[in-house]
Amino acid sequence: MSDVMNDRIITLDYGSGGMKTSELIESVFLPAFDNEYLRGLGDGAVLDIPDGAGRPVFSTDSFVVSPWRFPGGDIGKLAVCGTVNDVSMAGGVPAYLSLSLIIEEGFLFEDLKSVAASIASEAKKAGVAVVTGDTKVVERGKGDGIYINTAGIGFAAFDIPGKKSVRPGDSVILSGSPGRHGAAVMMARAGLLAENSALKSDCMALDKMARSALEAGKGGIRILRDPTRGGAATTLSEFVEGTDMSIEIDENLIHVDPEVSAACAILGLDPLYCACEGRMLAICDRDAAPDVIKAIRKIPGGEGAAEIGKVTGGAPGKVFLKTAVGGSRILQKLAGMQLPRIC
Amino acid sequence: MSDVMNDRIITLDYGSGGMKTSELIESVFLPAFDNEYLRGLGDGAVLDIPDGAGRPVFSTDSFVVSPWRFPGGDIGKLAVCGTVNDVSMAGGVPAYLSLSLIIEEGFLFEDLKSVAASIASEAKKAGVAVVTGDTKVVERGKGDGIYINTAGIGFAAFDIPGKKSVRPGDSVILSGSPGRHGAAVMMARAGLLAENSALKSDCMALDKMARSALEAGKGGIRILRDPTRGGAATTLSEFVEGTDMSIEIDENLIHVDPEVSAACAILGLDPLYCACEGRMLAICDRDAAPDVIKAIRKIPGGEGAAEIGKVTGGAPGKVFLKTAVGGSRILQKLAGMQLPRIC
């Protein structure tokens, strides 16, 4: 172990699969994520299925956010939340995570430990265990500090029928201000964010919020999604894409936090196209909507939940925004590169 | 779709999560991996559990091999085989894969399609479905063409007791010449490999080999592993690390293909420390060994299976190599960077 403790930076040796890789696992990862599956150190983890668990729900994301540490979180927190949220949006209760790192030679050992600590802390909060993993190291100039992949397994607790079940009159619910994550990362990248700025990423695990909403909705929730890359506008477009439905949202019903508005004005971005990493968009039966909104508001981070519009049937596949001054414009999926490496 | 067809290279837009990302999914990934789970295009896939399936087996690997196309395969084939093999070595029958790409801006569209085709072909052979995925694009100079992560889910069909069950007298079995993958990749990287060289990676899925061996072993197999990074020597060391057992292998029993020996001589490498991507190392009860070897030999790629040594009890945690000329040396885990970015 002494070698590890004496190294200040990650070198290519740590990705060799030999002695140094073992040392890294034993000095950083095992202590951070300690559990019986990981301790086996086999090629794969043989998992337990919780009593009464439904079908497995499986999802993955790679994270390349730049900068890797941003106001409100870091790539480790994001890598846990992103996959936990994908599993949750599909109706699963997240249970297990895999963790795979691609580290650029020269990354600081202390930064790796801090990322591992973030992962451990966020995984604990979301009730998921990191059960299997992998570490690769690439030469300087072939990466950018650290990239992380997580894959997640949960077990289906709710059946969410999906976009085919959406019908006119359904409510469109958003759990809080859009755009915080994208705006915070872009401002940080541009070096424009003051230390004490109120603008922080909304990055958080949505497992509890999704569960509360689904329980309160009593089968009335048609579809759930966390609007990440492409933002709320892109997710709304995807909700109706290829269906006979349209969506009308009302700018007056969408509360954008003032620090997000200000950042977007500086950056020339639209908050509706800026990524969220801790928001939930839902379409649900209008009768169920009040209970769903109430349930979401009870969850920390969901206090701003509100109906932002309705499903309509007039213009298949289209999303309309009624602007604050009474006009109307069509929202399409994000086109072109607005926000690279936001997650 | 026309945009995609007209682009020759992958640009940052394709990782934006918007229009271009959708086009990429619809023009490349959906046609290559078509299945009901992927068609849902949700955040996560809700999986079916095959009848009579055991506990889920979960594994992940990120692949950063350089060059990404090498004699005997490419990063796509490797990404499928690597994870299929990890699941198989843990006693699982592989069923589902996630696929996550980190592409460097400027990667050729036609190369991406060729990697997708490799993945699809290899997945089909191994009977696994690519059910969920993600694509990120990073700027030029922040990656190296393409990095791939796969995570795999299988279902346990066999209980492999692991290193704690290993006992003196057990057989150590290797399924074929060690070191082909590492030697082929290193020779290709150095530009030393002729087009028509016999040296090709051994990269292949071991699901059928593992299954046949486990069935033939009738509970006699203690531990299975595919010796990738660090090679056979590192895997053998890990087999006895932290146990009271030692291993004695005999150089005269290890057939190293002549093209591997030649390449290793040029590169200054030891074949026992060179990665395999299609070999299996097993420790099994000596009485079961003949049947296990016979079963492995029947599987294409396993024709060279042989006992290469025995478990002994004299020197806890140590691996001894009896050399061809009658000497003996200790094999340790790979120390230092011998073979970076081999997988």
Compose a concise summary of this entry.
Two copies of one chain form a homodimer. Chain A is of the alpha+beta class.
Structure description:
The structure is a homodimer of 343-residue chains. Chain A is α+β, with helices and mostly antiparallel strands and 343 residues long. Chain A has helices at 2-6, 19-33, 36-39, 75-89, 109-126, 180-189, 207-217, 231-240, 258-267, 289-297; strands spanning 45-46, 56-63, 69-70, 73-74, 92-104, 129-138, 146-156, 171-174, 221-225, 246-250, 281-284, 306-312, 319-322, 328-331. In chain A, the strands form three sheets. Chain A has a seven-stranded mixed sheet, with helices on both faces. Chain A has a four-stranded mixed sheet with strand order 2-7-5-6. In chain A, a hairpin with a 2-residue loop joins strand 3 (69-70) and strand 4. In chain A, helix 4 (75-89) packs parallel to helix 5 and helix 6 packs across helix 9. The longest helix of chain A is centred in the middle third of the chain and has 18 residues, at 109-126. The model of chain A has no long low-confidence stretch (mean pLDDT 94). Chains A and B meet through helix 2, strand 1, strand 2, helix 4 and strand 5 of A and helix 2, strand 1, strand 2, helix 4 and strand 5 of B.
Question: Which helices and strands, and how do they pair?
Answer:
The structure is a homodimer of 343-residue chains.
Chain A: H1 2-6, H2 19-33, H3 36-39, E1 45-46, E2 56-63, E3 69-70, E4 73-74, H4 75-89, E5 92-104, H5 109-126, E6 129-138, E7 146-156, E8 171-174, H6 180-189, H7 207-217, E9 221-225, H8 231-240, E10 246-250, H9 258-267, E11 281-284, H10 289-297, E12 306-312, E13 319-322, E14 328-331
Parallel strand pairs in A: 5-6, 10-13
Antiparallel strand pairs in A: 2-7, 3-4, 5-7, 8-11, 8-12, 9-11, 10-12, 13-14
